[in-house]
Structure formats: structure tokens, C-alpha cells
Amino acid sequence: MGSINRLRLTPVLCSAFGASAGFYILFHAPFVAIVSVLIILLVLLCFFRVLSSLGVLFQNDAQILMNTHAALNIKPQNLRLTSVCVAAFVIGIFLGLSAANAGRNDVVFGISEKNVTAAEGVLLDDPRIVSNGSAMATLYLQRCAGDGGLRASSSGEITVFFPKVNAEKLKQFGRGTTVFAEGSLRYSSYGLSLSAQSLHIVKPAPQIERIRTGIRLKLNSRFEENNWGGLALALLLGVRDNLDPDFTALYRKAGLSYILALSGMHLAILTALITFLLKRPLGLKASVIAGSALIILYCILVGPMPSLNRSALMYILGVIAILGALPKNSMSILSLSFLIQIIITPADGNTLSFILSYSALLGILITGQAFSFLLSGKIPNFILQPLSLSVGAFLATAGICSYTFGFISPAGIFADLLIVPLTTVFMIGSIIWLFLDFFSFSFLLSLPLSLLYRLMESIASVTGNLPGISASPVLILGFSVFLSVLMVILESLRRKTLLTLQPFS
Question: In terms of Cα–Cα distance, which of 2, 10, 82 is closest to 339?
């Protein structure tokens, strides 16, 4: 499939671009700018609709129609598609603006912030242990209390830091629990947050949430006794409480921190394993349907994570495509996934993991495939394919990472060639270890997993000691965009050359 076809504009792709423009750009722009953009787009829409209607108005005068199209240098068959794409882009803008407004976290305490001394609400995620041993969780406010016995209904989401003595207690109750925390408000890297001094459990979580929390706690207890158990929990459940901080720092310095956050790579490993186990007894279609059900259960167990939700949604859309209800086009599936997720969970669109996840995959589908085509036949395929993935994802996220972390590590591109397959082996080994542990045979894999853990740590350490790039995020963004566009142009030129030479081969 040629690069022109691969990057061909479709209504769903245009709608996704419109939604991203509305969500990330126009929502923060002045009202006049928004209206101006919409007017220009509506004028373009009317223009292309008029041109496409000429085929009906002048269907009995082919010469007039041909002269009109020739003067504008536009193919008649593209006019109607162009008008549809412009309309989809406008609709996408409205969707993006609406989602951005819905995703706003407007915290309302009901009383003055300076008077707030306590808050009651529901835990929206599983409490996480931070570096000083305290627990952190997102609380959806229901009521607030203040000095002098003030009480008020509240709403909005706020981050709460609980004392170290309450950390284990919180983990036992988990997501969905209603808590009452006394403390004081402060501003942190998470925005306005509550620094709690005491904790009271008002109402346990619903029964299904308690079952889920119980399963997570049992899995935690099985892994936590091993030196590599923290990594296994991070890769399989997204629980990073037991992960060695030094190990995390090494991965961050080496530009490999995305490995530790559940995303498409981890889900791809799990889905490949599920498909491998179910394909023979059930067949391909039945196995992917069963896999979808297992992936949904897995996402419920793990909890809400924007990058993981993106991967799961794309997997389900891919299954629907296999069944023939959607076109088998990766770019369309990515676009549709973005639209669905930004509409259902608009707040996710503001998270770093969401932005990096979609940016990386977009880079893989565009720049990564261009890079792969340009070097096809020059590098062994088993090296070229993972290298293309790394290059595409790196270029697409370089500007974002530079702005967020202050540096980027190009050496991580090559470290991926080793770390990703080792991580795959480690994840599968951890799952097998867990199965063997039920029969008291897990000791057979404990040493190999420990050695693999040390090997991955050593690779990250070596990579992290290589020099990174600390430059202006704008400069890095501009250079990465330039390289990406250059690769796509070179790919297109090479494909056209090959098509020209094909009749003579």
C-alpha cells in the first residue's frame, strides 16, 4: 500500500484532527479566533459542496464541467470527499470544544478555600504509595468542613495525600471507598491538593470493587517477597508501590520510563499470549472475541489508565474490523479510538499518558512506517521493525518529553531493541511464575527472573549514563517535525520511483 493511500484523508481521520484542534488549541484561544476559524471552514465547506454539485447541475454539459474542474486542477471524484472531510473536521472541532469543557475539573468547596479543614468523598482510583511512604489518591468531593463547624456540599476532583500510618489501611479498602480526611489545602505539582492528617472510613466500596481490590491484594502478596516482584506488579497490574525507586530513576534517565507504565506494548503482549492459547481450540474469530472479554476484565482489575484504555479500545475496534464491521485501517481505528475516548472520558485528554500514548502511536503509523520503508532491505527485518517503532514514537513525543522532563535521551531508541524483548520475556515469565506458585513450583523461575531483572537494570544504567539532550522544547519539537516530514516525503518519492520503474522490471 503506497504512502499516499496510507496517509489518505478520511472523514473519521479529519474528525479526529478537528477534535484534537478543538480540545488542545481552540478551547484555549480567544472567542474571536474560534469564530474566525469556524467561518473559514464553513466557507470552504460551502465552496466544495458547490463544486461537487456542478456535476449534477451541468451533467448534460460535459464541456462546462470539464473546463471548471480543469481550471481548478481538481479531480471531480475528489470534490465530494473533500467536502465531507471539511464537514467532518468542523464536527470534530465542536466535539473537541465540548469535550474540553466537559473535562474541566471545576472544584467547588461551597466555602472559602482558606477555611477548609476536612473533606469527604469517594476514592476514584487505588491509593498509591509515594516516595515518603504516604498514600496518594484522587478524591471526588461530596462535602467539606471548615472552621467553626461549617459544612457545605462540594464537587470536583482533588488529590489527597494521606499520612503514612493510613497507607496500608487505604490499600485494604481501595477504589470506591468513601473517606473523610481532616487536613489543610495546599498547592503541589498536582495542583490544589489536601494534605490529610487523619483518615476515617465512612463507607466501604461497592461489593464488586471490594472483590477487585481483594484480587489485587492477593497478587501483591505473592510477588512482593521477590526482589523483582515490584517490576512484575508494575508491568502486569500497573502497581508501582513496590518498585525500587532507583530502578525507576534509571529507566527515567535512559528514556525508558514508558516501559513501566501500562500501555499498548503491555497489552499487545497479553493479547498475543491470549490469542496464542485460544486460537487453536476456538479459531481466530472466536479467540479474538474471547480475548476482548478478557481484556475488558483485565482493564477493570487494573483500574482507569488512559494509555491502557486507549490500547484496549483499539484492540476491541480491531476485533470489530476483523469481523468485517469496520475497515481494517490502523489510522482509522486510531482516529475512532481517540474520538470515543475523548467523548466518554474527556478528563483523560488532559493527562500526560493520554497525550504521549496517542502521539507515539501516530508517530509509529506515519514516521515509523516511512522509516521502515526507506531502510527496507538495508537492515535485517528483525532489527528494522522494532527500530522503526522506536524512531517513530521517539520523534512524535520528543517535544512533549522535552517540555515535561527537561531532556530527551536518543540512546533510548537503541536500548529499546534490547529492553522491549527482555520485558516481553519477563512479563510472560512472571505470569508462568504466578501459575506455578499455586502448585509450589515457582522456585523454578525465581532465579531466572531475578537475573533477567538485573540484566534489564544494567542496560538501563548504561543507557542512562550516555549523554542526553537538554535543549529548548520548541527547538526539539521543530527538529523532530522536520525529520518526520522529511522521511514521509522521501518515502513518497521512493514509492513513486518504484511505481515508475515497475513496468520495466
Answer: 10
Confidence bin at 500 (pLDDT 50/70/90) = confident
Which stretch of DSSP H or E encloses residue 13? helix 11-24
Per residue in 301-334, pLDDT (tens digit) is 888 788 888 889 998 998 888 888 788 888 999 9
Per-residue pLDDT tens for 236-286?
A: 988 888 888 889 888 888 888 888 887 777 888 888 888 888 877 877 778
Rounded CA gap, 371 and 389, in Å? 9
Q: Is the pLDDT of residue 63 over 80?
A: no
Q: How confident is the model at residue 72 (pLDDT cuts 50, 70, 90)?
A: very low
DSSP of 59-125: TT-HHHHHHHHHHHT--HHHHHHHHHHHHHHHHHHHHHHHHHHHT----B-SS-GGGEEEEEEEE-S
What's the rounded Cα separation, in Å, for the pair 106 and 174? 24
Is 8 exposed, middle or buried (CB count within 10 Å of its CB: 0-12, 13-18, 19+)? middle
22 Cβ partners below 8 Å, 6+ apart? 92, 93, 94, 95, 96, 97, 99, 100
**Side chain identity at 361, as an amino acid letter?**
L
Q: Please, which residues have CB within 8 angstroms of residue 78's CB and are 6 or more apart in sequence?
A: none
Which amino acid would we find at residue 388? S
Encode pLDDT of 138-165 as tens digits.
999 999 998 877 889 999 999 999 988 8
- Cβ–Cβ under 8 Å, residues 310 and 266: no
86, 41 Cβ separation under 8 angstroms:
yes
Torsional class of 376: left (φ above 0), alpha (ψ -120 to 50), beta (otherwise): beta
DSSP assignment of 121-183 equals EEE-S--EE-TTS-EEEEEEEEEEEEGGGEEEE-BSEEEEEEPGGGHHHHHHH-TT-EEEEEE
**Domains of the chain with bracketed CATH:** 3-102 (no CATH), 113-205 (2.40.50.140)
The whole-number pLDDT of residue 2 equals 43
Distant-in-sequence, close-in-space partners of 53: CB < 8 Å, separation ≥ 6:
none
Strands 191-203 and 157-162: parallel
Outline where 409-442 has alpha helix (H): 411-437
Query: Of 236, 232, 136, nearest to 446 (Cα)?
Result: 232
User: Residue 45 has which C-alpha cell?
Assistant: 465547506
Q: Using CA atoms, how far apart are residues 189 and 485, in angstroms rounded to an integer?
A: 35
For residues 490 and 370, is the Cβ–Cβ distance under 8 A?
A: yes
Q: What is the pLDDT of residue 10?
A: 86
Residue with cell 458547490: 50
Task: Find residue 162's DSSP bridge partners.
Answer: 135
